[in-house]
Amino acid sequence: MGCHNYHEHELKPDNMRRPYRCDGCEEMGFGPRYACAEHCGYLLHEHCANTRDTLAHPFFPGCVFHFLRSGDPNRRCDACGGDINGFVYHCFDQGWDLHPCCANLETMIHVQAEEENNMTLFLHEKETSKCCRCGKEKLNKRARSWMYVSGCKEYHFHVSCVKKDMIEHLENSFLGGKGAAANGEVNESRDLEIKSLPGLQLARRRESGKKGRFAKFKKIVQIAISFIMAAFVGDPSAFVASLIVNLITNL
Q1: How buried is residue 250: exposed, middle or buried, by Cβ count under 10 Å (0-12/13-18/19+)?
Q2: Which DSSP category does 248 fall into?
Q3: pLDDT for 197
Q4: How does DSSP classify residue 206?
Q5: CB 25 within 8 A of CB 101
Q6: Which of 244, 222, 251, 219 has the alpha carbon at shortest distance from 30?
Q7: pTM across the whole model
Q8: pLDDT per residue over 88-128, tens digit each?
Q9: Contacts from 243-247 at CB under 8 Å and sequence distance 24+?
Q10: pLDDT tens digits, 13-55
Q11: How many CA atoms are closer than 13 Å to the CA of 189, on its beta-carbon side?
Q12: How much is the mean pLDDT over the chain?
């Protein structure tokens, strides 16, 4: 079931490399999307424009998620821990909720870092070790988060941490801060001229040892985070990741 009928005008695919706020789930997006053919500013993530009546997810065996245009108030996504503000997949039997983009996250991401440091990240349902971003294994009790883990088990990333960083960077640098209008003409006219943004603060690991080793660790983490961010916007390709990595060049 596509959500094209939920808007009064026709929606067409658009691939401008610009940030926006989806009018379906009300989450941030970047790059590929569906835009109003009449240029009224209505935009949807690809996953929000091409929803399904029901879906299943391997992390929730036996559960059937139903697409809803809006969920109950004060609900959180059971993948990223973020608030549910619009489109959602909901399991009526167990009460689970998933953002459309979270429900469609890649379960495996190939990260093209330096030649000797290429890695594959695997999506895990539960936290498995301390996150390279926040330094914690568990988040607060009210929120849960899936985790991307490298095949070598050395690099761990909370989905919630990476998503939060992406949203904050896009909102602050392109949309004038949290809650700013995302899809107006002024913002749409700003192409992706990315300059360095405030660097992410990583949890320094004791085992990183010497400064050189930690610098290498930071570089690999920076690239890995960019690929996860690219997966959030529905295009975990090296090209999109290379654009996003410029958002965090001061890591």
Answers
A1: exposed
A2: G
A3: 36
A4: G
A5: yes
A6: 244
A7: 0.80
A8: 999 999 999 999 999 999 999 988 766 556 889 999 998 88
A9: 243/17, 243/192, 243/194, 244/30, 244/166, 246/194, 246/196, 247/166, 247/169, 247/170, 247/173, 247/194, 247/197
A10: 887 777 888 999 998 887 788 998 888 889 999 999 999 999 9
A11: 3
A12: 78
State how far the alpha carbon of 70 is from the alpha carbons of 12, 25, 143, 237, in Å: 23, 8, 20, 30
Token pair, residue 108, equals 């495996």
Q: What is the DSSP string of 111-174?
A: E--SGGG-EEEEEESS--S--TTTS-SS--TT----EEEETTS--EEEHHHHHHHHHHHHHHHH
Distance CA 212, CA 135 (A): 20
Instruction: Name the amino acid, one letter, at 173.
Output: S
